[in-house]
Amino acid sequence: MMAYSMKTNWLVQIATAAALLAGTQAHAQQPPPGAGIQREKTVTQLEPGRWTGKRLADGQPDVQGHWSNTIANHNNWTDPQGGVPGDPGRNGPPKTPRSERAPSRVSDPADGEVPFQPWARAVQQDFLKYFHNPIKEEYIEPLARCAPAGVPKSFTWHGYEIRQFPGYVLFLFNSGTRVIHLDGKPHLPENIKLWNADSRGRWEGNTLIVDVTNNNAKARLARTGEFFSENVHIEERYIFNSDGTRYNYVATITDPTVFTRPWTATIPARRFSLQDEPDGWHYEVALANQPPGKEPLIERYERICVENNGPFGNIAVLGAK
Amino acid sequence: MGGLLAASLATAAPKIPRLKSGKPDFSGIWETTSAAEYDLEPHSGRADAPPSAGVIDGKYIPYLPAALEQKKKNFAARGVEDPRLKCWTLGTPRGIYYREPFQIFQRDRDLTLLFQFGHSVRTIHTNGTLHPEVTDNEFYLGDSRGHWEGDTLVVDVTDFNTETWLDRAGNFHGPKLHVVERWQFLDENTLEYQATLEDPDVFSRPWSLTVLLNRHREKDFQLIENYCFTLGYDKFYPVPQQGTTE
After folding, report:
1. Are strands A198-204 and A207-213 parallel, antiparallel or unpaired?
2. Rg (Cα) of chain B, in Å, rounded?
3. Which of A61, A182, A208, B66 has the smallest number of CB atoms closer than 10 Å to its CB?
4. Is A75 a domain residue?
5. A292 has pLDDT over 60
């Protein structure tokens, strides 16, 4: 887990908040003890359609709050609960048959594999081969150095907060921040490349549709090394259910320089709220300090990762200093 | 008579954007034109700073003697030691008068400040919540709790770490820094930003600085994320291209 330069005191507070919540709240959606990051093994199907839930004053569906993916972290793109292949540590290879783990994040093609061109498959395999033994700087995932996780990896890296404003949807990720423009302004000039790319969106019913360009393509999709190039074009559909408890991130990824065909990624997510216990990964929040007698409120603390203070691959990073 | 006076006052008051709640709406992209971030204090022109009469009420920062010595050391080492050079989050108040735009997104419950430099996010809570009871939080941007005094947003900021400076000249603070900000419109496109800083380990008394913030009104102007702290390792991550593995 990534450490933060804000020190660890906030974890203590979260634990305190958790204890407070445990004492005062019903636990409607408690995960089983020890569930850790990996939870659901299936993807809830959500269909594009009408939005019948709450709306904000500007007409946007109200999806503000705290969210996290329901499956697993970014260890493995196509076998999300399978760990990083070649892990020499205690996790080792998965102990369950593949059919008992969550499906690939590649929902199209049906075989669940990223349709890499042969040279690109070799590049991905090369990164994976050295992931646990990063003999060169390039084998350390940029996220481990505090770089933004980028599009789409941010959706599998810790929980995050969505805030909405007239003309904007903001994603406050664990590592990086993303602004979705609904304001009709054009994409940035194509030679500007960004960790979190350039996002222009619109709402259609229960679906936020976002056109994503200008990706600097430096953040791998997962520790398994999947990637695309600066030429990538991503069309995202965030399909929400109307009670505001879940959404599916469905992204069509097109890059003729790397893939043999466009393909689709699906990442299911669910809302975390007061009924959930902060867990230091999906749901990193604290209970607001309020005058007595107020309804409990959840808030997010500053999340800044700028110094390399002990992430994955840190031996190679620190050795380079 | 009273009605006439009220009417003339209403005419004289600046027309400013407001939320539905009636509170001033600071939403927008802002940047100062002042030279405050080079050096808050009055100074002649030098190689790394244009001249400026400074932005401090009383001209100079009232350092305690030991702190003044530290400031002099910082100044001498500013070309190496300034956290800005690593693109670390600039802190409060430095991020506000740094010469790159920041955007304010505002709801009734809070203001979200997104800084282009480093792309860091500060939340100013305006929902009646208090500073955390935990007293050993250490944040780059501090913990910000705001309230309204008429059309002025008053923000109390505590819980700082010591990784930030106040400007490029090595002006600094300690962990006990306490900042009180006052944000108000001068007109619909200009904000006056005042910050009062106290730190009993560093300053002999509280002191204040004032800068103006100007709204960016260029066509299609927008923030462009600037994760400049990644530039040091950028070279390790060329985008793979055909032919990069044998």
Report:
1. antiparallel
2. 20
3. B66
4. yes
5. yes
What is the dihedral angle through the alpha carbons of B4, B6, B9, B15, rounded to the nearest 10 degrees?
-120
> Tens of pLDDT along B18-34?
999 999 999 999 999 99
Touching check for B225 and chain A: CB below 8 Å?
yes
Q: What is the pLDDT of residue A8?
A: 33
Distance of CA B73 to the CA centre of its chain: 24
Host domain of residue A262: 9-319
Note whether B233 contacts A142, CB cutoff 8 Å. yes
Q: Domains (ranges, CATH) in chain B? A: 24-236 (2.40.128.20)
Q: Residue A293 and residue A277: Cα distance in Å, rounded? A: 21
- Calculate how close chain B gets to A281, using CA atoms only, in Å: 19
Question: Taking CB atoms and an 8 Å limit, are A138 and B131 in contact across chains?
Answer: no
Tally the domains of chain A: 1
pTM (2 d.p.)? 0.90
CB A71 within 8 A of CB A81: yes
The interface predicted TM-score (ipTM) is: 0.93
Q: Does B236 touch chain A (CB under 8 A)?
A: yes
Contacts of B105 in chain A (CB under 8 A): 163, 165, 168, 170
Which residues, 6 or more positions from B110, have their beta carbon under 8 angstroms from its beta carbon?
B123, B124, B125, B126, B127
For tokens 């996002």, what's the residue?
Answer: A199
Q: Is residue A2 part of a domain?
A: no
In contact, A279 and A268? CB cutoff 8 Å: no
